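Case study.
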Amino acid sequence: MRIAVVPGDGIGKEVIPATLPALTLLNEALGLGLSYEVFDWGADRWLGTGVGLPPGALDELARDYGAVFLGALGDPRIPDMAHGRDILLGLRRGLDLYVNHRPIELKHGVIDLYRENTQGLYAGVGGSVGRHGAATVAIDECVYTRETVEKFVRSCLTRLRAAGRRKVTLVHKSNAVPHTGRLWQQVFRHEAEAFPELEASEEYVDSFCYHLVRDPKPYEGVLAPNLFGDIISDIGAALMGGLGLASSASICPETGFALCEPVHGSAPDIAGKGTANPYAASMSLALLLDHAGHEDAGRLLRTCTADVARGEAATPDLGGTGTTRQFMAEVTALIERRLTTAGAAPRP
Ligand code: ATP
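After joint prediction, the assembly is written out as follows.
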C-alpha cells in the first residue's frame, strides 16, 4: 500500500517527519510492503500558487494510494483557513471519508468515539444576506441523508463488535433539533437490532458531555453526528491530558481509504520550537497501520509510544524534557529493541 504523507503547516511539519523513521523501521523489519511519498500541500503552496488540493489529486489518491497521513492545516497568514477547507474538506468529501474514529484513551481503557464526518452542520448548505460584508441574516443548514446515517451507523456498529466492545451510545439532541435528531434515532434503533452483542443506549448531547467529564467509565462506543462529535473529541482530548495526545482516522468503509491525522491543529504558538508533542501523530500512524491490516505493527507502535510518553524523553506538555525528535527517536529505538527481543531484527 502507498501512503501519501502531508505534513501540512505549523507543528505538522515537525510531528509528521519525526514519526517516519518508526514507520520505515516497522515496514522493513516486519515486511509490511508499505511505501510513502511526501506532498507539500499547505499554506506555503496556497500563498505561493493559490493551489490547495491540486487538480487531479483526488483521482490520483483513489487510484494509487490507500491512505493519507496528515499533520495539520492552519496558518496565521490565512485567517479564514481557506486552504485548510480546500484540502481537508476536499479530501473528506471527495474520498467520502464519512467515518471518523477518534479513540479517547483513558486510565480505565479506551472509548471509541465515532463522528460522522461529511454532513450535518458541516454540509456547507446555507447563506447570508447583509450589507458591506456585515451579515444581517445568516443560515447554516444541518443536512443529513438517511443513506449516509444508515451506512455510518452500520459501519460503526460492525467495527465496535469486531473490536469486542459491548456497549454503544448514540449522542443526539432530538428534543431541540428534532428532524435530523429523529432520523438518527430511527436509524440507530433499527440498525442496532442486528447487533444484539452491543447494549445500545441514547443520550442527549448536553447530558452526555456532563456525564463524560464526571465519569467516563461507563462508555465504550459512542456514535455522534458531525458537530457533536467534533466538540466531544476536544473534551476527550482534554480528559486524555491535552491536544497533543488525541489521534484520529477518517475512513471510507466501501473503498477502505483512510486519512489519519492528529486531532490538534498547527499550533502556531509553539511551531518552530521543536517541542510539539508527536504522541497524537504517532498514535494516528498506529491507526493507519491497523487500518492497512498490520495490527501487530500498530500495536507495537502504540505501546512503545505510550511507554516513552511516561518517561523523561516526553515533551514538556507531558512533564518531560524531550524534543519532538528525541521523543520519536526513543520510540523508534524502543521498537527496535522489542523487535530484536522478539527475534524480528531489521533486515539488512
Ligand atoms: P489551528 O489554527 O491550526 O487550529 P490552534 O492553535 O488554533 O491552531 P491547536 O493547534 O489545536 O489550535 O492548538 C491549541 C493549543 O494546544 C496550542 O496553543 C498548543 O499550545 C497546544 N497544542 C496543540 N497541539 C499540541 C502538540 N502536539 N504538542 C503540544 N501542544 C499542543
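Observations recorded in class. Residues 11, 72, 74, 243-244, 264-270, 276-277, 280, 317 surround adenosine-5'-triphosphate (CB under 6 Å). Residues 101-126+136-246 form a domain with the Isopropylmalate Dehydrogenase fold (CATH 3.40.718.10). We will return to this complex in the next lecture.
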